[in-house]
């Protein structure tokens, strides 16, 4: 396997594999061992299909219609019909990376030898990913139970050569045309295969994995922006001493404090809290930054544990067990994933909230310890960053609404057969918005904090802070001065935060941060 390939097989799939396929150009290969396991489980399904006893998903209808026995001549139609009828999504298109993650994770489960599909289904799913064909999936249609049904159905529809999909050129076309263009034969589904393509937590899991990767970066960004704000406000770094965090041994808190301390090493701005206007202690938004960001880090660690467990799972119903039994189960219920998706939205909202409070303190002349009002060039004539903080506050307010958990909701479906659902897909969708907003909030703090540091004339910032100042100015974010069209500065700061350049600038001085 080269560095641009991901092998699906018996060795397990990692979060990095998912991201490489979803966001990168990694090719997907299916191991021979996996294909052998798939063939063996298919033989179990073929044997059951030949017997007169009804087996759910093989020779029966679905959901509340499982009471009907389906005769052999109607079973191919049954599998086609479940895909067509369940491809009932509505709303805006879901992002390409989400659909690719969803498809790859479903492929991972199909290749586990627990779903009973034929090798041709596995091979065709891999071929779609490698051809860069992305089914059109819509925002609404999953309740996060019985799997992400509508999203997965739209993917299965493409496998059949039906519906719409986006080609590698980004143009949406008929799926049948795209498959033909890439030499991919549409799959004619047989017993259980339609059901197996739909019955997983793959959409919510894919979004969880990508959110975890994004939040890991943003927690480090938040440590940097908090350190810059502490400098700009002439705060003390004594509260970051490791011995203080050792007596409350939350690992995330210790990591955040250590990051901030390394950013501030050699600063000539820290420790002035006892000068002209003596302070016994800095405000909570400064002093408690490691406690809040650290709690988020620990929440992230728990979410990653859940994601890893789900990655190790084969989610389908019914499932083919190693001893050859085919058993119904409830493993498709998305509760474990939904809970941590909601938990991360809470952590992201609180981190954004404390960052906004630091920004507001930087802009308020009554609390900024000598900085000009709103960090303006000529206050009164200039408004400075006044409205940047409005934008930041609007983002934080939305994040608080997005932190309301989806997983406590449930709405019955399928004639009360599916009477409790997880709403995990909804939790994932709102978390994606929250993560985007968090990056924007931290970008605004970065703009304010760097401007505040530069306005402390005669005091030398830390070497790491100087590296950030140089990098952010190269990225197109201007420093102090008169008012100007501000949106481009904020957009440049946002791109700077998301790209990883902020962390790169700091680590060029400090070495790798946690």
TrEMBL record:
Cross-link (5-imidazolinone (Ala-Gly)): 145-147
Annotated CDD domains: PAL-HAL (cd00332)
InterPro entries linked: Aromatic_Lyase (IPR001106), Fumarase/histidase_N (IPR024083), HutH (IPR005921), L-Aspartase-like (IPR008948), Phe/His_NH3-lyase_AS (IPR022313)
EC main group: lyase
SUPFAM superfamilies (UniProt xref): L-aspartase-like
NCBIfam families for the chain: hutH, PRK09367.1
Name of the protein this chain belongs to: Histidine ammonia-lyase
């Amino acid at each position: 396997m080269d560095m641009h390939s991901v092998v699906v097989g018996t060795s397990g799939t990692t979060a990095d594999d998912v991201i490489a396929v979803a966001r990168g150009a990694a090719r997907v290969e299916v191991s021979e061992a996996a294909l052998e396991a798939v063939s063996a489980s298919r033989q179990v399904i073929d044997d059951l299909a030949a017997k007169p006893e009804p087996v759910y998903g093989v020779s029966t209808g679905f959901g509340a219609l499982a009471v009907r026995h389906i005769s052999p001549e109607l079973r191919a139609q049954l599998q086609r019909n479940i895909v067509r009828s369940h491809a009932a999504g509505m709303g805006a298109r879901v992002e390409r990376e989400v659909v690719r993650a969803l498809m790859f994770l479903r492929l991972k489960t199909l290749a586990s030898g627990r779903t009973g599909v034929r090798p041709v289904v596995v091979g065709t799913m891999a071929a779609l990913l490698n051809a860069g064909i992305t089914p059109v999936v819509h925002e609404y249609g999953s309740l996060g139970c019985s799997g992400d049904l509508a999203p997965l159905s739209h993917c299965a529809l493409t496998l059949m050569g039906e519906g719409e999909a986006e080609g590698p050129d980004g143009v949406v076309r008929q799926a049948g045309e795209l498959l033909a263009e890439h030499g991919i034969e549409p799959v004619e589904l047989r017993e259980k295969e339609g059901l197996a393509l739909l019955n997983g937590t793959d959409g919510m899991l894919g979004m969880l994995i990508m959110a975890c990767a994004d939040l890991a970066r943003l927690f480090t960004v938040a440590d940097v922006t908090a350190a810059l704000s502490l400098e700009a406000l002439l705060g003390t770094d004594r509260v970051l001493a490791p011995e203080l965090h050792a007596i409350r041994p939350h690992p995330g808190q210790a990591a955040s404090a250590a990051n901030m301390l390394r950013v501030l090493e050699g600063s000539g701005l820290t420790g002035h809290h006892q000068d002209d206007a003596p302070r016994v202690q800095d405000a909570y938004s400064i002093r408690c930054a490691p406690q809040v960001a650290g709690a988020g880090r620990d929440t992230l660690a728990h979410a990653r544990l859940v994601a890893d467990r789900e990655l190790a799972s084969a989610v389908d119903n019914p499932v083919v067990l190693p001893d050859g039994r085919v058993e119904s189960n409830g493993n498709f219920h998305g509760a474990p994933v939904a809970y941590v998706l909601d938990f991360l939205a809470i952590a992201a909202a609180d981190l954004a909230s404390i960052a906004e409070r630091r920004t507001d303190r930087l802009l308020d002349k009554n609390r900024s310890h000598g900085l000009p009002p709103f960090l303006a060039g000529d206050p009164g004539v200039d408004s400075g960053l006044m409205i940047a903080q409005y934008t930041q506050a609007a983002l934080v307010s939305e994040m608080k609404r997005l932190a309301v958990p989806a997983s406590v909701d449930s709405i019955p479906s399928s004639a009360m057969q599916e009477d409790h659902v997880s709403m995990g897909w909804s939790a994932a969708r709102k978390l994606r918005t929250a993560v985007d907003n968090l990056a924007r909030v931290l970008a605004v703090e970065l703009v304010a904090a760097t401007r505040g540091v530069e306005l402390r004339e005669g005091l030398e910032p830390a070497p790491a802070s100087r590296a950030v100042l140089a990098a952010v100015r190269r990225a197109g974010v201007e420093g102090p001065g008169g008012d100007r069209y501000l949106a481009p500065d904020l957009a440049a700061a946002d791109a700077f935060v998301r790209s990883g350049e902020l962390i790169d600038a700091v680590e060029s001085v400090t070495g790798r941060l946690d």
